[in-house]
Amino acid sequence: MSDTIRAMQRRCLNRLLNRVTRAPIAMAIFITMLQACASQQSETLDSAIKDYEAGRYKQAYDSAWLTRRSASGVARQEAAYVAGLSALKMDRPVTARDLLEEAAESTDRQLSGRSNVSLATLLMEDGEPLGAARAFDKAAECLTGSDAIKARRAAAAAYRTAGRPDIARARLEGTPAPSSIGSGRFTIQGGAFHDRARATARARELSDAARRTSLGTARVIPAEVKGRAGFLVQIGSYDTRSDAESIRRMLGISGTFVARMDT
């Protein structure tokens, strides 16, 4: 874009602002236009999330990228997060890293935590364990409950890989053992099967999708399915339904839903 065009745009915007500040009705119209713009951004991001959940990662990336270009603040970072996850699914790690780094700086603690977990896992795969450990540290500061515990333990493992066992030990001090993690009331369920082989295959699919998160591996649980012996496939454990739903959407696998865990 030329300097002349930029100057013309600035003059037009200044004239518009001068008019609306002098006229209350015009100001109301101007505010309505801004609200409509924000609504359109939200709809575009919602569309990106739906595409991601349906496995349409290219469409999800394009929509999220479009929203990111026109949004600001947390809305821009949310769009960067969705675009980053989509880039990961499309095997574009460099692009994904840039976008996740942007989202990881969000003032929204949940968004920052999730972004740092995905970023840390990507850094581990790229052979940067120290950077991964620091990202896991940031995630642990932002997340709560079992997710924070998993992030701290992941940070310890990354520090150990980076040759810093002293920091790894410090991260594990006071951190509950894995057996005590997962006391939440909700989980992500990937299906109910009568055939163990099908349940195992579904669990593998969920585990593969979750490999860039702190969810761990999916579990196959013996249970009654439609009055007969069968198996449930579940992954993760969350204190609230909204937390579980947020992660379910992030995984982007169709046929999953949030279920209450048996106690």
Task: Give your account of this protein's structure.
It is a single chain. By secondary structure, the protein is of the alpha+beta class. The protein folds into 2 domains: 46-180, Alpha Horseshoe (Serine Threonine Protein Phosphatase 5, Tetratricopeptide repeat), CATH 1.25.40.10; 186-260, Alpha-Beta Plaits. 66% of the residues lie in helices and 11% in strands. The longest helix is centred in the N-terminal third of the chain and has 30 residues, at 24-53. The radius of gyration is 22 Å and the shape is globular. The protein starts with a helix and ends with a strand. The model is unreliable at 1-9, 19-23 and 25-38 (pLDDT under 50).
Which secondary structure elements does this structure contain, and how are they paired or packed?
Layout: H1 3-22, H2 24-53, H3 57-70, H4 73-89, H5 93-104, H6 109-125, H7 129-142, H8 145-161, H9 165-172, E1 186-193, H10 196-209, E2 219-225, E3 228-238, H11 241-251, E4 257-260
Antiparallel strand pairs: 1-3, 1-4, 2-3
